[in-house]
Amino acid sequence: MKAKTNTFFTFLMVAAVLAAPPMAAATVGQEKRFNSPGRTMYYIDGEKGNDNNDGKSPEKPWASLDRVNKVVFAPGDKVLFKAGTTYTGQLKPQGSGAQGKPIIIDMYGDGDKPRIDGRGAVLDTLLLQNVEYWQVSNLEITNLGPTRENWRTGVKVLADNSGTLHHIHLKNLYVHDVNGSLDKSTEGCGIFWQCKGKTPSRFDDLLIENCHVVRTDRNGICGRSSFTNRSRNWFPSLNVVIRGNLIEDCGGDCIKPWGCEGCLVEYNVVRGGRQRCDDYAAGIWPWSSDDTVIQFNEVSHIKGTKDGQGFDSDYNCRNSLFQYNYSHDNDGGFILICGPAVSSWSVGTLKTIVRYNISQNDKARTFHITGSSVKDTYIYNNVIYIGPNLDIPVVLYNDWEGWPDNTHFYNNIFYADGTARYSYAAKHSRNEDGTYRHKSGFGKSTNNVFSNNVFYGNHVNPPDDAHAITSDPMLVNPGSGKNGFDSLVGYKLKPGSHCIAAGIPVPDNGGRDFWGNPLPKDKKPNIGPHNR
Hints:
Layout (H helix, E strand, L loop, with lengths): L1 H18 L4 E5 L2 E5 L5 E4 L20 H5 L1 E3 L4 E5 L3 E3 L5 E2 L7 E6 L6 E3 L6 E6 L4 E4 L2 E4 L9 E8 L3 E8 L2 E6 L9 E8 L5 E8 L2 E6 L1 E7 L11 E7 L2 E3 L6 E2 L3 E2 L2 E3 L2 E5 L19 E3 L2 E5 L6 E5 L3 E2 L2 E3 L2 E3 L4 E6 L10 E2 L2 E3 L2 E3 L6 E4 L3 E7 L2 E4 L4 E8 L6 E6 L2 E13 L13 E2 L5 E6 L2 E7 L72
Parallel strand pairs: 2-4, 3-5, 4-7, 5-8, 6-9, 8-11, 9-12, 10-13, 11-14, 12-15, 13-16, 14-17, 15-18, 16-19, 17-20, 18-21, 19-22, 20-23, 20-24, 21-25, 24-26, 25-27, 26-30, 27-31, 28-32, 29-33, 30-34, 31-35, 32-36, 33-37, 34-37, 35-38, 36-39, 37-40, 38-41, 39-41, 40-43, 41-44
Antiparallel strand pairs: 1-2, 41-42
């Protein structure tokens, strides 16, 4: 009888194992985790789902973020939220994919993007911490609390004592209403990536593409890294791409790569930055990064003059390239190029290139160039339009632990329907609002070279330029730009313009003009961003 009983219980145990879902359970602390076998589709429906379901079909979906967070996902898994559903709390998925087998979060069904709402009860609504090979698309994410909170984000991607994490792609997200801190030292963000810890940590292949970021404080899309000291722990993120995003009504800085090498920022639109912060902020700018390319972006309506520029080439950066961008109606101006003295941790601001851009009605100052470490800057083939009601320094130099050196202006069109000045501001000449008390001239800046530029309209004390043109450049319709690149045909040259074939050749000039026309190889280029 005893033998028969043992045989019976053995049969029951085997049957139970065979009937169990192929997801193994493990306990971490007091919390049970489930290991996915990989290459499995999981469905979540906050209205009709049940966490006791297996989640493997639209007919038997899970219901909550908590159920998703308990799974350690594996290569090839897909996590699909039903369109039009809403979830409260934090989505913090676990596990990593593999090369060629990422883990995918997306939506299923027709309707609005699934909404995940942190409601200020969590610091980060979507948190990808120390995981890799993830692709997250088509979610609505928000994190609005009753009061502001330090470091609050909508989306956070974190590398903490992790080494190099690969392939994190964030696409088509709608991130809005995140009320983080407005202080730069504790700043909140819409989409935020961070590298920290004692072990050097970074991202390789981080893509943020076609996202819509609205009313996020302090920042829009930004990074932060603890590994930017040149003499001690330089470990930059690689292959970071920020492309095709729309940022509106941002509290402070809008797009800020930090601690990257070869970052690409392109085809983004920024409408309204620095809307609520009281400290210094700008539109798009790298910090502690090398070989950053910032191109085909439109930035407008950055508020205020504590910086307040559309673009900024900041310090501890080398080889920052700004090309084919459109900047307009920014309170602080077009671009800041800045850097204090070189130190053991910072190389300064070296070899910035600003070419084939259009600036229209940017206020306060157009080119603000400041600091002793700003060296070897090349600014060429841009068009700057100063509207009838503006009286501004087109070029403003000032002292920040010393003066800039070796700045070159070639083939630019400075078109002033208002008044254009060329100025410097000495140390301690900054006003409370971030503007400067400036005087004519370039102060103690050294090796400033102007050649083959157009100075048309009202220019006060323009710089020496042996090959300057002061006649009408014959633009199609200057000052007619609106929102969008399609509105900029007014900055093309008319036939017969004196700017045609009147420029100075510049090596490695990018090979194309603002509109994609090839640049000549066997004759002089045009002045301005248009090659006929």
